[in-house]
Design brief:
By secondary structure, the chain is an all-alpha fold. The protein contains 9 helices and no strands.
Length: 191
């Protein structure tokens, strides 16, 4: 993938435009033409940099991410989880939640988007989370044979979406912290 000739500022402007358009019109109605118009750039430039709409959307979402699990090591599993929760403020979680709600449907109807998101976002974050869990095993905080370890990514992603479906509210740091303390850590039998 070629990324020459775009300054970080220009790339940031393009990514912000993509995210704004996703929030406004959703994935299906987002077009490279609309991004080009909004950013006063050419479609050729966009395609030269990202090759496709799914790649551009995945890159914009990756750029928008707060520091994830790969940058965190507090020395304890509970500390690592808390650090992950405090990396994003509630306003950012609300904005990200709106994006994700729109993309959930799109990944089921656009396999190329699903694949791009898997490569850019899901796999790296899952790998980093598994690293956090391995360190907890190495420190003796959780048992290596605990079957819940395999399902931590599912628990965390699931909580994010289930709260919206069940309680019709957006997850915030308070909810996620209580969820980790009340569900995830007990399931892991963390010491």
């Amino acid at each position: 993938m070629t990324r020459s000739r775009l300054t970080p500022e220009r790339e940031n402007e393009l990514f912000e435009a993509v995210l704004d358009l996703l929030r406004e019109v959703g994935y299906d109605s987002l077009t490279m033409d609309a991004v080009a118009t909004r950013t006063r750039s050419s479609k050729a430039t966009l395609y030269r940099q990202w090759h496709s709409k799914p790649e551009l959307v995945a890159a914009a979402l990756e750029h928008n991410q707060v520091p994830g699990a790969h940058e965190i090591d507090t020395g304890s599993l509970r500390g690592d989880f808390r650090a992950m929760m405090t990396a994003a403020d509630d306003l950012q979680m609300e904005k990200d939640s709106a994006l994700m709600r729109g993309l959930i449907h799109a990944i089921h109807t656009h396999p190329d988007l699903h694949e791009a998101l898997r490569k850019k976002l899901i796999e790296p974050e899952t790998t980093a989370l598994n690293r956090v869990l391995r360190r907890a095993v190495d420190r003796g905080e959780i048992g290596a044979d605990n079957p819940a370890v395999e399902f931590v990514p599912h628990m965390l992603f699931g909580a994010f979406f289930a709260l919206q479906i069940i309680d019709d509210r957006i997850p915030d740091r308070d909810f996620l912290t209580r969820y980790i303390d009340g569900v995830v850590l007990p399931a892991l039998e963390a010491r």
